């Protein structure tokens, strides 16, 4: 064969997708070049994630999982085959998404990456004095010891031997590795003027009629019919602190445990942000957290902190900014004591340098993982892939520029191109033009969202996209102008001496009655300032992108309270009970219990979800679907997009003012394409935030705080968001927005810019004033980029 002939193996250079129908995709067919950077664009809800994540990445991961034994598959998440005719040329897909990292209170940046493990090994090898293995430096391992007799079989005889064991862990014994301890306000746990049977316990789910109330009333360790104030010291001690003890209540064997250890296990073991609102309110009321006095918040035992390398212990190393830690590690490489761990130091240095390179040098390893933003979490996950030896992998990114200042986007673009240049296929779902323009290949979905989307409206080069006439093509070079006239503040919200995280005693007056935008590079202290000093005040409503708690049965109709007036309207029109029109109650299809699908567990093999044959996915009993309102049954109403439902409930015989008001707010925040019955688990971070905003718009708060509301918004939708923010301000509200998007900056009445850099190089107010003054000043990074944006 001549060298000019192509080898058969080189012909597989395309990922072919034919007939994709996941969610709203309408028989989509695309051919994506391998080892190139492909960007997927289109308005929110056009089908980008359905094509990239739910079709290409899902099938790749499902096929890889099938290569494992059925035993191993039993421990892996199960995935159904995507609804697609043909998928060909797939490679291993690695998804780097924006899901927040770790809800566990013990999870930190160090534990969530390889750095913590490498640092623990380093200290166990060359730390002085030597205190033990790597476990001795882990705050997730407690020190325990024990001894006793064990029975072993030797030569066919059973012999008893005495054994002793000891595990040296690094967890501080006082706080158990959490870094803080809790003091209880007993007045928030019970009303001591009442008895247990009179409802003295004021803890959520501890009502008299509930199971816990019955256990405490019938325990026998203290009188259930006398006021708690009359308890003797031993009785009060049993109520609060008694160790788990088996008792019998109403003929049932149960375990009794004191209130405080029970609360610590059921409430305090969870991350505060992951709690339900009423539980969080109770915890905030009843429990005061303070830094552990024994370990000073380092989480580590005195023994772990006693071992040092060059005068630095592991707690000091974890508290350093990562860029400083990288310099410290670099300084160790020439020392004779470190020669035996040279490969370990090289690996540690490379990983730390990757953090700095990716723009996260301002973090520290002891930073709780739950406090990272979605963008920071995504970039932290990228770290392990940058140094990977794998090639010919498909990397899938979900808006990697989220949380990035325009100054940092160029750095992210370089990282994406580096992954591509190593021979990988990089698929990116993105809205920012700065990242779209570096693509080798663009797939634009649309033309609109929901049922009006799901089609490929353009496929080709960036130059072709500009001249294509699609919504993305028309808006790709959009530039917002600086607002000619700005509103005058009606007052100010004073912040004095703010010092959380990297803030350096910030004093600033946040103007009220106007649109205020808080800007600055990632890590400059924006979220620390607003969430630390503004959130929590009376009248302040915070709308972030955190996950919405709910099951796969939850949907926009249930979450917003919209289903309540709809059910009542159906019930009144048909003369029946409202409960019939709930798929979670009496109206549920008996075969699938209102889920719409039947889940079949195949034990070791992947489970299968099939559409219910009885209700055909409509979730309701057939008798319920005979009742109509405005000519539609309840399943047809839940299948409507918000925009259609708004017209349906706004006029005519189906007019329902209570439902229409909620639907108007959903349309206002740009969610007109969502169907009322779409599971909440399928929403993106930006969609979740806008759904929360729609709900909170009905609250009585006078100050709204929005954290990056442009997340997940198409260029064309940013105009609609700005119009919504204007309406909120014009109605008398104060709106504070943490944002990186230059169009929002240009539209602000006031800008507060933090910086000048990130970490300890930030934490200061470097500019306060109007957008025009910021552009004219041009001394800050934000000012320079905004000037280039409005001038470009």
UniProtKB/TrEMBL annotation:
The keyword Repeat applies. InterPro entries: ABC_transporter-like_ATP-bd, ABC_transporter-like_CS, P-loop_NTPase. Residues 480-781 form the ABC transporter domain. The keyword Cytoplasm applies. Gene3D superfamilies: ABC transporter ATPase domain-like, ABC transporter ATPase like domain, P-loop containing nucleotide triphosphate hydrolases. It comes from the Bacteria. It is found in: Cytoplasm. Keywords: ATP-binding, Cytoplasm, DNA damage, DNA excision, DNA repair, DNA-binding, Excision nuclease, Nucleotide-binding, Repeat. Pfam families: ABC_tran. Its main location: cytoplasm. PANTHER family: DRUG RESISTANCE ABC TRANSPORTER, UVRABC SYSTEM PROTEIN A. Belongs to the ABC transporter superfamily. UvrA family. This is UvrABC system protein A. It comes from Pseudonocardia kongjuensis.
């Amino acid at each position: 064969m001549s060298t000019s002939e192509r080898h058969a193996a080189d012909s597989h250079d395309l990922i072919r997708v034919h007939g994709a129908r996941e969610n709203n995709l309408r028989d989509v067919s695309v051919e994506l070049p391998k080892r190139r950077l492909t960007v997927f664009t289109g308005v929110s809800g056009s089908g980008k994630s359905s094509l990239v994540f739910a079709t290409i990445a899902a099938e790749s991961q499902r096929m890889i999982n099938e290569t494992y034994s059925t035993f191993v598959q039993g421990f892996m998440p199960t995935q159904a085959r995507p609804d697609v005719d043909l998928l060909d040329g797939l490679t291993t897909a690695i998804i780097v998404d924006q899901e927040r990292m770790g809800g566990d209170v013990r999870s930190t940046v160090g534990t969530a990456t390889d750095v913590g493990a490498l640092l623990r090994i380093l200290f166990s090898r060359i730390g002085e004095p030597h205190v033990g293995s790597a476990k001795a430096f882990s705050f997730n391992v407690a020190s325990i010891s024990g001894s006793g007799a064990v029975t072993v079989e030797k030569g066919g005889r059973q012999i008893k031997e005495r054994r002793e064991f000891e595990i040296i862990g690094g967890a501080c014994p006082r706080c158990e590795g959490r870094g803080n301890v809790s003091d209880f306000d007993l007045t928030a746990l019970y009303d001591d003027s009442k008895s247990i049977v009179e409802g003295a316990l004021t803890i959520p789910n501890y009502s008299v009629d509930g199971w816990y109330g019955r256990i405490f009333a019938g325990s026998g360790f203290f009188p259930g019919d006398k006021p708690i104030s009359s308890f003797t010291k031993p009785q009060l001690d049993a109520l609060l602190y008694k160790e788990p003890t088996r008792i019998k209540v109403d003929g049932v064997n149960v375990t009794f445990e004191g209130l405080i250890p029970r609360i610590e296990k059921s409430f305090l073991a969870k991350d505060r942000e992951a709690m339900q609102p009423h539980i969080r309110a109770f915890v905030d009321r009843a429990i005061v957290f303070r830094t552990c006095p024994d370990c000073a918040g380092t989480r580590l035992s005195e023994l772990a902190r006693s071992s040092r390398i060059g005068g630095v212990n592991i707690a000091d190393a974890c508290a350093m900014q990562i860029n400083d830690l990288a310099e410290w590690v670099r300084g160790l490489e020439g020392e004779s004591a470190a020669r035996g761990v040279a490969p370990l130091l090289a690996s540690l240095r490379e990983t730390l340098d990757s953090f700095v390179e990716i723009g996260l040098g301002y973090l520290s390893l002891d930073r709780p993982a739950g406090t990272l933003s979605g963008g920071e979490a995504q970039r932290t996950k990228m770290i392990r892939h940058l140094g990977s030896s794998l090639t010919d992998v498909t990397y899938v990114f979900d808006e990697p520029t989220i949380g990035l200042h325009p100054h940092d986007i160029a750095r992210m673009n370089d990282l994406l191109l580096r992954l591509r240049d190593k021979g990988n296929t990089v698929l990116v779902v993105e809205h920012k033009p700065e990242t779209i323009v570096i693509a080798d290949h663009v797939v634009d979905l649309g033309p609109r969202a929901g049922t009006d989307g799901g089609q490929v409206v353009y496929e080709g080069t960036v130059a072709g996209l500009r001249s294509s006439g699609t919504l993305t093509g028309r808006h790709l070079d959009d530039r917002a102008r600086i607002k000619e006239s700005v509103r005058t503040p009606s007052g100010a919200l004073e912040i004095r001496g703010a010092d959380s995280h990297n803030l350096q005693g910030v004093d600033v007056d946040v103007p009220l009655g106007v649109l205020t935008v808080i800007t600055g590079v990632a890590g400059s202290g924006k979220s620390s300032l607003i969430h630390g000093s503004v959130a929590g005040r009376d009248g302040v409503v915070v709308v972030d992108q955190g996950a919405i708690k709910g099951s796969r049965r939850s949907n926009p109709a249930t979450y917003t309270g919209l289903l309540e007036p709809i059910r009542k309207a159906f019930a009144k029109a048909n003369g029946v009970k409202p409960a019939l029109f709930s798929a979670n109650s009496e109206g549920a299809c008996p075969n699938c219990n209102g889920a719409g699908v039947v889940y079949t567990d195949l034990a070791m093999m992947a489970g299968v979800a099939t559409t219910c044959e009885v209700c055909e996915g409509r979730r309701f009993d057939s008798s319920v679907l005979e009742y109509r309102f405005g000519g539609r049954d309840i399943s047809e109403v839940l299948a409507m997009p918000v925009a259609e439902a708004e017209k349906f409930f706004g006029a005519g015989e189906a007019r329902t003012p209570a439902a229409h008001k909620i639907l108007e707010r959903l349309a206002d925040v740009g969610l007109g394409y969502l169907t009322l019955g779409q599971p909440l688990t399928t929403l993106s971070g930006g969609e979740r935030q806008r759904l929360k905003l729609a709900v909170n718009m009905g609250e009585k708060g006078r100050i709204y705080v929005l954290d990056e509301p442009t997340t997940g918004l198409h260029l064309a939708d940013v105009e609609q968001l700005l119009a919504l923010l204007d309406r909120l301000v014009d109605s008398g509200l104060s709106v504070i927005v943490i944002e990186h998007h230059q169009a929002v900056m240009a539209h602000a009445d006031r800008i507060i810019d933090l910086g000048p850099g990130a970490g300890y190089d930030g934490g200061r107010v470097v500019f306060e004033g109007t957008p025009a003054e910021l552009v004219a000043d041009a001394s800050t990074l934000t000012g320079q980029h905004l000037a280039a944006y409005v001038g470009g």
